[in-house]
Each structure stands twice: as C-alpha cells, then as structure tokens.
Amino acid sequence: MTDYNQESVREDIIHMILDGQQRGDTIEKIMGGDYKELCDEIIAAMPKKTLKERIIEFIAIFLKSLGVLGVIALVENLVSGLLAGSKSFRFILTVGDIINAVIIVLAAIAIYYYVSKTAFNTMKKKKVTSFLKLWLAASIVSGLVILGNVYFTTAVLEIPLTLAAILVLAIFLIERIVDR
C-alpha cells in the first residue's frame, strides 16, 4: 500500500477504536478476534502500489542505506586520520568498500522486504531449520564483507573529507526528494 493509504487506514482504525471505546465496547468486539485476518482483508481491499511507486521506494531505501554507510565511512576515515596524526584528512574509498557497500545495502533491502512480508507469520515447527538458514545467510554476508576488506584494498577514490561529507549530505537530500 502507498503511504497515503496506510495513513488513511490507520486513521479509520483509530476512529473505529475510539468510537467503540465511547460506547464501552472492548477491542475484541470492535476489531473481531483475529487481527491478522482483519488487516489482510483491509490490505486486499486497498489498491496496490504501481511499478513506478515500487521503483521509487526501492531507490529511496537504497539512497538512505547508502547515506548511512557514507556517514559510517566518514567517521571511519576521520578516526583513521586522527589516529595516524594526519593534518589533512582524506576520504579513501577502496574497491572493497564499494563491494561491501553493495553487499550491505542489498542485504538490508532483502531483510526489510522479508520482515515486511513475514511479520505476522507464526513460526512453524521447523524453528531449528529457520535458525540455521538465518545463521548461514548472516555468516555468508559477514564473510563476504570481511573478505572485501582484506583482499580488495586498491584505492579507487581519494578526496578531502569535507567534500566527502558534502557528498553524503547530498545523498540524504536526494533521498528526501525521491521519498516525497
């Protein structure tokens, strides 16, 4: 659902609850026994996001993730410069940093979509299998990130730290524009 439709549904539900509360009804009487079923019915009745809306949402999530990683990289480069006693702070971007950023952003997007699709699902009897799959996926992502840092150390870009901070700020501003 679009953000507007989500907000509209929230407002309707709040009004239903408040009206029921004024009548002295319980939440179970107002909403029925199965909240998930009610939510599924509401979601099914609402129009789905268009392809354009889904692409814009993906781009906004990607830019937000990239911005957060940019802030982390800025702090890392600043601390490295301070520890090295450098007088001119530089932002150094390596091949490994780029690979790691792609892996982390894709993993974050996958987690976001997985959680949003399965938040109401009850755990099946295969809890151990689910745990092992999650552990394996986390281990693979962590391993790839570590390998990227160790083996891909060739510098691709070296710019002043202030320029890098401006670029990260620009990413956040572009994300805000895209998100609107």
Describe this structure in words.
- The protein is mainly alpha-helical.
- Helix content is 77%, strand content 6%.
- The chain has 7 helices and 2 strands.
- Strands 1-2 form a two-stranded antiparallel ribbon.
- The longest helix is centred in the middle third of the chain and has 34 residues, at 51-84.
- It is elongated, with a radius of gyration of 23 Å.
- The mean pLDDT is 85.
Order of helices and strands: HHHHEHHEH
Mean pLDDT across all residues, rounded? 85
Give the class from helix and strand content and strand pairing.
mainly alpha
Q: Helical percent range?
A: over 70%
Q: Provide the spatial order of strands within the biggest beta sheet.
A: 1-2
Estimate the global geometry from the Cα principal axes.
Answer: elongated
Strand fraction equals: 5-15%
Q: How would you characterize the largest beta sheet?
A: 2 strands, antiparallel
Poorly predicted regions are none
Tally of contiguous helical segments: 7
Measured distance between first and last alpha carbons: 15 Å
Q: What is the β-strand count?
A: 2
Q: Radius of gyration over alpha carbons?
A: 23 Å
In short:
It contains seven helices and two strands; from the N terminus they run H-H-H-H-E-H-H-E-H.
Question: What attributes does this structure have?
Answer:
two-stranded antiparallel ribbon, mainly alpha, 77% helix, 2 strands, 180 residues, elongated
Topology (SSEs and partners):
Elements: H1 3-23, H2 27-31, H3 35-45, H4 51-84, E1 90-94, H5 95-118, H6 127-151, E2 155-160, H7 161-179
Antiparallel strand pairs: 1-2
Helix pairs in contact: 4-5, 4-7, 5-6
